[in-house]
Amino acid sequence: MDRLDELLKGPDVIKSDQLTGLILDSTPLLETDLWQEAIDHYDVFAEAEANAGLPMEHQQYLSDLRVDRYLYDTLAREFELLDVWLRNNSGRPEAIQVASFAQRLDRFGPRSWIDQQEKLYLWAIKNEQDDTAGSILGWRLLCQELAGSLVEWSLQKDHDPRGQQIRLWQDSPGFYPQNRLRIWALRFLEDARAPQILAWEAAIKSEIVENHPELFAETL
Amino acid sequence: MESPFDRPPINVSATLLEGRVPNWTKDYLATVSATTDDKGRLLDSLRTGEDPTIRDGVNLALSRLVDPEAPKDSQGKTAFLVHDGTGTGKSFQAILAAKAIALETGRHALITTRADLIPALRRDLDRLGLDDSRIAFVAIEQLGAFLKDAQKQKQQFSVAIVDEAQDCRIPEVRKFLDRIPASRQLFFSATPFHNIDEFCYFSSKLTGKPIHQLKNEIHSAKDLHLAVADQLKQMTSAGGMVHREFPFYGNVTPAELLPLSGESGAAETQLMDGYARLAGTRNFPQQRKLKEDLTIELNTASDATKVDSILHRTLDLLSQNRKVIVVGDDLPVASRILKELDGLPKETPGFLSALRIAMVANGIESSFIRALKQNSDAIPALSPERAAIASRNSEEMARFVDGAYRTNESGQRVELRGRDNKPVYASSQTKVMLLPYQQVAGWPELNQRFPQAPEVSMILTPTASADQFMQAIGRGSRRNSQGPTDVHLVANDSSADRRRLTHLLKGLHFIAATGSPAIAPFLQLAADCLDRASTQRAAQDQRLIQLQKNQQTRSARIFDVNRYRMPSPQSRVRP
């Protein structure tokens, strides 16, 4: 292999679908498949009138952000319903797993982080020579690669719960795929691919706080 | 040189199937008639003339679409793809197919394409002497809102026709198309397949197989290109698609392979070493970005070495009364690794910008097309900036295009026509255009349609994107071009160019697998250029190794340990 090809090969993203623990199945506890319900009720025409006439690339961008927010809201709802379940069923054996799952809420972050991505991206493309800008842009590229591989993976895994929410990504690749990846990683933290997603984001956030806190000033 | 546009386009499907193309048995076009006699002549010539392209396209499409046995996709829809090159009459086919299928089924046909292309479709409708009864024209940008309304009204269409179907690369377009209440889909595109994803999308529509199954089949095949060609053969022989195209009209000269100076070679090595060191100290996201930056730095550094040669080549072509389009990248770099004497990052202008400056220094004015920011088409917040650049680019393009124009009351540029209704010729203001690869798509005005205008030469630097490369070529050789286009590729043996050429060749192989006849000379050009660059580099490396060996031998002689052996303590003892 050419030296340049060798240099351009890495970094190696974990793409193994191995599980390190048991995934929480909330359907029997909540007596409804919350995610399936959300996918079934997703209204593809919800913003059709508002977006009519915009270039298709803009419509795609806005649709991507809407999918991100929808996924966020669905996970928020799942956290909320499981919290209620836990309060009412603390003595049941499943409560340990639910309690452990509920702790992920600490890393959920505000919904505004989804919209914050545009500001970060626009700042980064204007300041490409800045190391933090490089991190922000590189983070998006890494997430694009991983999100793409997850979509491919989900097409082969019809019945795997980890592929369920990815169905909404098929019509929407995600301009800022880090948004949906974070939601997916929090939901399926037991998947070998998930921890890296949260680690990348944590690294970016701490770099921004350290070097450019003004970028967080408005929303966090 | 004989113009290929004087003959019907090549029937690529027939070549692919060695003449065993599916035949149509019913002439659906016969039912379509013009509403006015004076305009019926064009329609009659399409129906009965010597060129069967349009008649065959419409009839093959309808034969498939009305066949109840035809494969259906996962939505239960039957599809047909007209993969015809630029200038073969796709718009006429789209309109005539819409009319014919509406007549056949008694239901309206829906035609969708980008909003700015709908007026041209309507003009074609008028040229054919047809009215828009039973046809719904819906801008693709309005499709979501239209469908929401259509759902409420429970409207049904006989067919959804998509002109410029390469827009199906946008998932939002795919999503809306599948929701049009029509059991048939008819796609028109000159470039439907840019990559395997797009190929599998259309394959899935035409064969009814799931996309992931098709992807698996292609990826697991021993020879990917053979698998693509086989898949195309199957789809074509099953009556799912048709492909006609004009060959390239012009001359392709062997690539000019420039030597890479020792200094440039050393800088390239220094860049790679430096980035490798940097990557070792950075986190994953930063490493990922460094990959992008290294590629850009190497490409810009490599292209900077070509400015003088391309300037002289341009001067030479201008002296032969030719117009010149130079296509390349324009990515300025402030190096992360290389420093100026004062310690500041070494700055290298983008290739086209550097060339423009060199041309000005030689008294040559050029039309300079600026690249739009990557992804700026997606982000609404960047629209104003994008629109400003696009507007300046249009002005620059207008200076390069031949023909007489005036500006009307509403500020639009209107072509002047003579008494015979033919466009009036006037020489362009500039004879050179500098066009970045990111901006090569479109520009319908770039058509050398005046016999008295100078012929066009294109000078291209390597790009990794076969799609952009072929689109760039298309800015020279277009339907109705009155003269041939010369194509010159200028490269060197840098790692950057060899990498770009490798990717270009891979992409061209993919396009060739889809049967495009215009690709053959460029496949040869890129393969030959890469081969020579690799040989030249290997010879250069060999010379360097030999030089190093010689130096080592010389050094070994200079520092001959035997000569300079320290006397042993014993020997120091005088006898």
Describe this structure in words.
- The complex is a heterodimer of chains A (220) and B (575).
- By secondary structure, chain A is mainly alpha-helical.
- Helix content of chain A is 61%, strand content 0%.
- Chain A has eleven helices and no strands.
- Chain A has helices at residues 3-7, 27-30, 34-40, 48-51, 56-88, 95-102, 112-126, 131-156, 161-164, 178-187, 194-211.
- Chain B has 575 residues and is α/β, with parallel strands linked by helices.
- In chain B, 45% of the residues lie in helices and 15% in strands.
- Chain B is built from 19 helices and 18 strands.
- In chain B, helix 8 runs parallel beside helix 10, helix 13 packs across helix 14 and helix 17 (495-513) runs antiparallel to helix 18.
- The interface between A and B is large, with 53 and 57 residues.
On the 0 to 100 scale, the average pLDDT of chain B is 91
Largest β sheet strand count, sense and barrel closure of chain A: none
Whole-number average pLDDT of chain A? 93
| CATH class call of the largest domain in chain B | Alpha Beta
Give me the count of strands of chain A: 0
Tally of helical segments of chain A = 11
CATH superfamily descriptor of the largest domain in chain B: P-loop containing nucleotide triphosphate hydrolases
Q: In whole angstroms, how far apart are the ends of chain A?
A: 46 Å
Largest sheet of chain B: 7 strands, mixed
Radius of gyration of chain A: 19 Å
Q: Please state the overall shape of chain A, judged from the principal axes of the Cα atoms.
A: globular
Q: Structural class of the secondary structure composition of chain A?
A: mainly alpha
Give the end-to-end Cα distance of chain B, rounded to a whole number of Å: 95 Å
What is the alpha-carbon Rg of chain B in Å?
29 Å
> How many separate domains make up the residues of chain B?
2
Q: List the quaternary state of the chains.
A: heterodimer
Q: What's the total count of β strands of chain B?
A: 18
The tally of helices of chain B reads 19
